[in-house]
Q: What sequence folds into this?
């Protein structure tokens, strides 16, 4: 049985919240922007724009973290290479030890290691850019351990909610202040009999800290059209909110598992 989108990951160990040590080959004043989970900021090299002039971007956790997934959001490094520290040297990640998937335009990269590793450091290197001779940039760089992926399609009802202040003017028109937006979704399982999906659902519901959802799951062929949040790039940090309602089917667990729960985007 092949997996069907809706893929989940645990803590992003590259997050600024963990205060890792970041070493960049240039532009050290903006290096933290690649770990801030904000798509409007990024690390941009300084003086390394000529193709063939390689960059290095290293994240050091100070102690070992167990990871199996690495994600680079919006980087223009054409020959991007990732590696993890094995305790003595860097092990380059290739198709021999991982599944490496790039978006069609080359700007988004996801790596799933064949097996998880315990490592203190991860690193990005590269020499050339997608458009030749530009300064190299990394918008987001994440590292986590996968929680799991549904094997069957649950009901997925996403919402992108705008946060606005609306003030009514005396002439009948309105004055609107845009404050941003938030991703939300409702996930529903109806008569599920797949034990792996049931276990994954229970894991998410029992988790008391944020996690990441990837609706696309890394497979662009799942959807006829690509739009938010179903694009390859859309991995979102969320948490479960509110109540959920697990129930039997005709009072028999073996007949199926029914529940619904809500998630909301968090910082």
A:
């Amino acid at each position: 049985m092949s997996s069907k989108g809706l893929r989940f990951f645990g803590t992003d160990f590259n997050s600024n919240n963990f205060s890792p040590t970041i070493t960049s080959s240039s532009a050290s004043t903006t290096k933290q922007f690649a770990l801030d989970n904000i798509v409007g900021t990024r690390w941009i090299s300084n003086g390394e724009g000529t193709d063939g002039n390689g960059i290095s971007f290293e994240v050091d956790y100070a102690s070992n973290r167990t990871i199996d997934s690495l994600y680079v959001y919006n980087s223009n490094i054409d020959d991007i290479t990732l590696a993890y520290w094995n305790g003595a040297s860097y092990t380059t990640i290739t198709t021999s030890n991982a599944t490496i998937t790039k978006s069609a335009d080359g700007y988004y990269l996801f790596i799933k290691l064949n097996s998880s590793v315990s490592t203190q450091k991860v690193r990005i290197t590269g020499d050339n850019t997608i458009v030749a001779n530009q300064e190299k940039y990394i918008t987001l760089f994440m590292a986590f351990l996968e929680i799991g992926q549904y094997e069957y399609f649950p009901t997925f009802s996403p919402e992108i909610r705008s946060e606005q202040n609306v003030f009514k003017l005396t002439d009948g028109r309105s004055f609107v202040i845009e404050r941003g937006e938030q991703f939300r979704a409702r996930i529903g399982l109806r008569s599920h009999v797949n034990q792996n999906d049931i276990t994954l659902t229970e894991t998410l519901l029992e988790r008391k800290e944020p996690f990441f959802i990837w609706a696309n799951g890394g497979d662009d062929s799942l959807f006829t059209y690509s739009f938010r949040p179903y694009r390859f790039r859309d991995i979102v940090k969320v948490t479960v909110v509110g109540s959920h309602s697990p129930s039997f089917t005709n009072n028999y667990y073996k007949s199926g598992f029914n529940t619904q729960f809500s998630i909301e985007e968090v910082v």
